[in-house]
């Protein structure tokens, strides 16, 4: 039996995908990875990778990918069911979400057979970790202004340029790189996507310390990096179309579990506070309605996610509508993080471990939430997309 | 979307819009109910043995969306709900309601504890034949207006569907069980949200149109990013209401009761904000009586009160803080 076949045999059926995922997660999430209990140390990258590899073997990750590439060949509905259970489980975020939710779908869409066979199983099995080389110092929100140059030579493509805010690059084996073949004035034309091996000569990765103290995102320099022709994804003219597809996926379905993770965070806060008379009184007297408003927002967010999934199942494109759940989630979650910080900042001294755990988690969420209205297109960019592409406002009249 | 009914909810949208427009020219509530009934819209949810179509709730959504957008001055929500609620148990009455012969409304606030009492928030009660009144035990009774049930005009925020108080001295009439009332209230949350969606979307469309026409400092208002962002935020609000309604009615929704409640609470805040923002974008014009945005705002705020949005938010808090959410989650999982 091949490895892929062995994995496929363990996969849940369509009807029971969510229930099976939940049962497996309940039984297998290590105590050291739980986000709702007090941890003495952060999990290591190796521990997180091993966990994700197990998730794949259990059929929880890669559910919608074809079985020939290690996936489960399930539909989007099953993916949503599984995502709900991932969200409800207080486990760490993926360290290879770029591979699984961005690079993988793009390779499936525009990659050739060799690329699919080489890259896709390696992503699911956590042998390859991916980062996304899109943003540049002068092309953050304005992606079409990117300057990283790709010149065709007899040896392949020679890449020169700089990327920034490249999450996870220092731990990545591959970079989904967007570069241009012409000049900056070409804007959306002449953009090309590559799968770049980050160990190639000329790739220089430097970590940037972010406000949460992590060194997750990086700047990546490409100095005369020679990328084989075989590692170009799609044709040169498909670059922008593929990039916008990546972004619409990112905004709409990436981390589909986040409404249910958000709910898990809210319930963790409330249930931890209920254990202590002083904190119970605090939330009941001062925060009941604001917390209820958070609960309502979570339900509204589920409306965005579930309706979008239904629309995709009906064969519709996501397009600019991907901006709606992204914007709603990022602002609602930021609002929650402020409220949660306000509550935990009023905790009494001599806290029990459960209250210390929730305090630490909510403080961490508050700081990390600052990024949520910036990455994957800032709030201002999303508003511009909605104004121009959904409302189709015309300011040239 | 295709359904087992060879129809889709969207098929009703154009008809509803045309009938609501025609209603704007009609002189009385009775005339408007007659137009709606002639088009089959009052009986969409009533059983097919009661002069209705026996369609699921999602078919009523585009109709009430059109009613909200078109500022319909008729108790259409209440008519649809009662034609459905009495189907199967009181078919003659359900038929009379569905075909517009008996004009009905609902007193959304107050409960009877016995045969006498006062209830209010009954839209257009002065133009109706009967009013549904809730009782403390959870059931409800349809009381004929007149002797024993006197309608008294009240100060009202809503201009299209002015609310009235009803003083009841002898409550008699057909009854609905507590179980039917619970279901009626849940459906009302979704359908009120559809009315709010219509009002909000019309407010947004009017604001977009105005911002693209009106010029200041040599440029259209919409040339300014501040205005674009205002409008985009209201678009997000409208789409949030729309998607939440769709989720509440989806067979894949895990907890439809919670979803309907959240949809309505969310719609009241988002819908009011959309109308308020539209007034702001119109500037001084937005504060004039003739620009109808205030009508939408009044309507949404009145619907929030009729549906008890504030009390529902308290119930969400109670459920959350009691740990019931976690218990429900565990039950769902088991």
UniProtKB/TrEMBL annotation, chain A:
Residues 19-125 form the Acyl-CoA dehydrogenase/oxidase N-terminal domain. The keyword Metal-binding does not apply. Keywords: FAD, Flavoprotein, Oxidoreductase. Residues 131-225 form the Acyl-CoA oxidase/dehydrogenase middle domain. Its cofactor is FAD. Residues 237-391 form the Acyl-CoA dehydrogenase/oxidase C-terminal domain. GO terms for molecular function: flavin adenine dinucleotide binding; oxidoreductase activity, acting on the CH-CH group of donors. InterPro entries: Acyl-CoA_Oxase/DH_mid-dom, Acyl-CoA_Oxase/DH_mid-dom_sf, AcylCo_DH-like_C, AcylCo_DH/oxidase_C, AcylCoA_DH/ox_N, AcylCoA_DH/ox_N_sf, AcylCoA_DH/oxidase_NM_dom_sf, Mycobact_Acyl-CoA_DH. Pfam families: Acyl-CoA_dh_1, Acyl-CoA_dh_M, Acyl-CoA_dh_N. It comes from the Bacteria. SUPFAM superfamilies: Acyl-CoA dehydrogenase C-terminal domain-like (SSF47203), Acyl-CoA dehydrogenase NM domain-like (SSF56645). One of its GO terms (cellular component) is plasma membrane. The keyword Oxidoreductase applies. Belongs to the acyl-CoA dehydrogenase family. This is Acyl-CoA dehydrogenase. The lineage of its organism: Bacteria, Pseudomonadati, Pseudomonadota, Alphaproteobacteria, Rhodobacterales.
Automatic annotation (TrEMBL), chain B:
Residues 193-304 form the Acyl-CoA dehydrogenase/oxidase C-terminal domain. Keywords: FAD, Flavoprotein, Oxidoreductase. GO terms for molecular function: acyl-CoA dehydrogenase activity. InterPro entries: AcylCo_DH-like_C, AcylCo_DH/oxidase_C. PANTHER family: ACYL-COA DEHYDROGENASE, ACYL-COA DEHYDROGENASE FADE28. This is Acyl-CoA dehydrogenase/oxidase C-terminal domain-containing protein. The lineage of its organism: Bacteria, Pseudomonadati, Pseudomonadota, Alphaproteobacteria, Rhodobacterales.
